[in-house]
Amino acid sequence: MLPYKDPSLSPEERAADLVPRMTLDEKLAQMRLLCSPGGFFPGYVFSEEKLLPLLDRCGAMYCNDSPPAKFINDLQDYMLHKTRLGIPVAIHGESLHGVLHRDATVFPQCLGLGASWDPALISEIADTLGSEARALGIRQTYAPNLDLSRDPRWGRVEENYGEDPYLTSRMGVAYVKAFQSHGCASSPKHYVAHGSPESGVNISPVHAGERELRETMLIPFARAFTEGGALSVMPAYSELDGVPVHASRFLMTDILRGELGFKGHAVSDWGAINMLTSVHHVAGDAKTAGIMALTAGIDVEAPSLYGFSDNLRDAVVSGEVPMTLIDQAVARVLYVKFRTGLFEDPFVPDHAAVRNTQSLKLSRRAATESAVLLKNTGILPLAKNPGRVAVIGPNAYYTQLGDYTLEESARRGVTVCQAMTERLGAENVLCSRGSHIAYDNPQLLDDAVRKAHASDVAVVVLGDNSSYYHGWWGDDESSRRPVVTCGEGFDVTDLDLPAAQQKLLEAVYQTGTPTVLVLMSGRPHSVTWADTHLPAILEVWYPGEQGGHAVCDLLFGDVNPSGKLPISVPRSVGQLPCYYNRKVSSANIYHQPGSPENPGRDYVFETTTPLYPFGYGLSYTTFAYENLTVTPETEPDGNITVAVDVQNTGDRTGAEVVQLYLTDCVCRITPFVKQLRGFEKVTLAPGETKRVTFTLGFEDFAFINEQMRPEVEPGTFTVSVGGLHAEFRVV
Fold it and tell me: ω before 569 within 30° of 0 (cis)?
């Protein structure tokens, strides 16, 4: 047995043996990807004749069109037994909040999962995703998204876990560990700083210095690699401080591999090497772009040949590009294939066990944990027999699943109208679309008003539409092109609800029927009018394919809302950027909030505070915090223990997210107002008390010093939990 075929050897040893045995063309094939192989193999019927001209790019295949097991098995059998070296293909795919396959389960979109503040839940979901991916033959996916959602105008805020690096890192580590336990590689994206684009426009430049990079944006990725052990990475399209990430050796090699010890491979984002020429204008041609990317640390080009084409081959042959760079990239690709066990078992079972009763129950539970109750003056939960209910709004009629889902998934999802009718009976539910996503219709509006008048309560379901790339828009106006309002490449200039939806909401409110607003959205909306006028607002984000049932579970109190905002909700775009972990000199210097009736300073006609802050969320019960204690002062590299009693003071069982924030009171590098440094979700029965304990250490106290390294200096810190505060010193 050749050494590289011996599974008892380490992945590094096996790769080191295999690379020297390979020709240049065999090496380059490992650095390339064949996208959508169904287009090359009609009906996904495998053919050696059709494969042969593609072998120069078959290190990996990206499949988003649900290839059958037989095709994958025939392909892998050929690669293992009929090619010279027997290197299997890595099947790539997506698993952002569900494996992108017609047979897989769709869970709530990631911003909603961030609102759960529950890494254990993320672990359960990622375990299911990994199991389904493996069963479907997909051995590497481009997830999780660990960008920080720092500008809600950006359409891709929905794909991330929120604005905070600590919360995102805990979710990311949970995801990576569980997903990779199934022999599948996780590719966190978009490394790094992608979530703060100029003007909120996708792929625009990111303006941040190295300190801000290290203080916030890098943290989730660093944890995914050092703690989670992620095997792959996908860099960001954008440029950071004038250098495209795909051409940045500082980011892709010095930090990623030198500081973080990343051993896996880097897969380019779609067409990103081409963008070095066409968008960033840092390379004049394909060869130059390919060399820049390879030198920076990119190992695989996706989705098609541009920089890693025959131009790169010619550059290696001529000596312009050293073979050592090629060998390095190929060794990284093979390392991942060996680590995931692909050489030993690349095959797929004939009948995959996916999307079953258990996974659907998990999706429904995740949707209830993701929802955030923003306002409630007592109308919720609804009575078990509420009389006649009007269910109104475009998103009451459609299952909004969010970006990176298939049309089949949207069509089988449970809508709020369906779930409410199933629960109460058709005779007690009046459904009306009311409007389209972004434009009104007088007939639909009249129908909604009439049905609201005839009902005892109105549930109005409004928000966004993100399903563009896979053919399902959630709006069927025949005379106009359906409007996508969120998702990749769909950014906005204001955060209000579309005018047609706002008009519908106000018309229903004016009927006098008690009205509950359910927001089914991919970003936070500035619902200032609704906050002033309506008795209840429930944010459910994109709740997954069981979303309709989950919404009813929440409205009727079968489940007590427990979600907390993972992202601040600004009052308007004028407050942007609007995130909680701002520097101490940012906003509210004069402490004179203004209003149109009483102008002030800071903002003359508005307050600087968000409509709803990060970490906010109501419950159908109440909680009290007492007895906050902190251990004595500690050395800079020591630990302290923070503990607090949390009691359910209401009459319903509920879950509370206990959040610990830390403030460095004085620091020679300007400190943050506060930073999240711990959280725990606890479930308490009425009257029950639990003592929750956190441990803080060097990483929690540290700031980034002048040498761009973490440092802790002696001084006073304030710890805040549930409205309680305590000071301690690091000496």
Answer: no
pLDDT in tens, 365-382: 999 999 999 999 999 999
d(CA 388, CA 428): 5
Beta bridge partners of 675: 662
- How is domain 368-575 classified at the CATH fold level? Rossmann fold (3.40.50)
> Quick check: 182 and 134 in contact, CB under 8 A?
yes
Region 489-495 average pLDDT: 95
pLDDT one-digit tens code per residue, 466-481: 976 655 556 665 555 6
Nearest one of 262, 249, 194, 163 to 222, comparing CA atoms? 262
Contact 555, 425 (CB under 8 A): no
CA distance 107 to 360: 8
Q: What is the CA radius of gyration of the chain?
A: 26
- Residue 182, classed as helix, strand or coil, is coil
Structure tokens at 716: 């006073």
Helix (H/G/I), strand (E/B), else coil: 178 = helix
DSSP 453: H
Look at strands 640-648 and 689-696 and give their pairing.
antiparallel
Going by the DSSP 8-state scheme, the letter that residue 53 receives in this structure is G
Mean of pLDDT over the chain: 95
DSSP class per residue in 50-93: HHGGGGGG-SEEE--S---HHHHHHHHHHHHHSSSS-PPPEEEE
Q: What local confidence, expressed as pLDDT, does residue 638 receive?
A: 80
Contact 678, 641 (CB under 8 A): no
Give the predicted TM-score (pTM) of the model: 0.97
- What backbone torsions phi and psi does residue 128 show, to the nearest 5 degrees? -65, -45
What is the C-alpha separation between 566 and 315, in angstroms, rounded? 48
**Amino acid 420: pLDDT:** 98
The count of other CB atoms within 10 Å of the CB of residue 572 is 15
* Domain covering 623-730, topology: Immunoglobulin-like (2.60.40)
Helices and strands in the chain: count of H runs, count of E runs? 23, 25
Residues found in the chain: 731
Q: Where are the domains of the chain?
A: 232-339, 368-575, 623-730
Once rounded to an integer, what is the mean pLDDT over residues 136-149? 97
Catalytic site residues? Answer: 269
- Residue 401, classified by CB atoms within 10 Å of its CB into exposed (0-12), middle (13-18) or buried (19+), is buried
Q: Is residue 371 a contact partner of residue 619, using CB atoms and an 8 Å limit?
A: no
- What pLDDT, on the 0 to 100 scale, is given for residue 601? 87
**pLDDT over 70 (residue 197):** yes
User: What per-residue confidence (pLDDT) applies to 707?
Assistant: 98
Report the amino acid identity of residue 514. P
DSSP characters for 410-427? HHHSPPHHHHHHHHH-GG
Taking only the tens place, the pLDDT of each residue in 507-517 is 999 999 999 99
* pLDDT tens-digit readout, 149-187: 999 999 999 999 999 999 999 999 999 999 999 999 999
Give the pair of three-digit tokens for residue 69: 């097991």
CA 482 to each of CA 255, 475, 485, 683: distance values in angstroms, whole numbers, following the listed order: 43, 6, 10, 42
- Per-residue model confidence (pLDDT) at position 589: 81
CB 310 within 8 A of CB 316: no
**Cis? peptide before 381, omega within 30° of 0:** yes
DSSP element (H, E) containing 161: none
674-685 confidence digits (pLDDT tens): 999 999 999 999
- Other residues' Cβ atoms within 10 Å of the Cβ of residue 391: 32
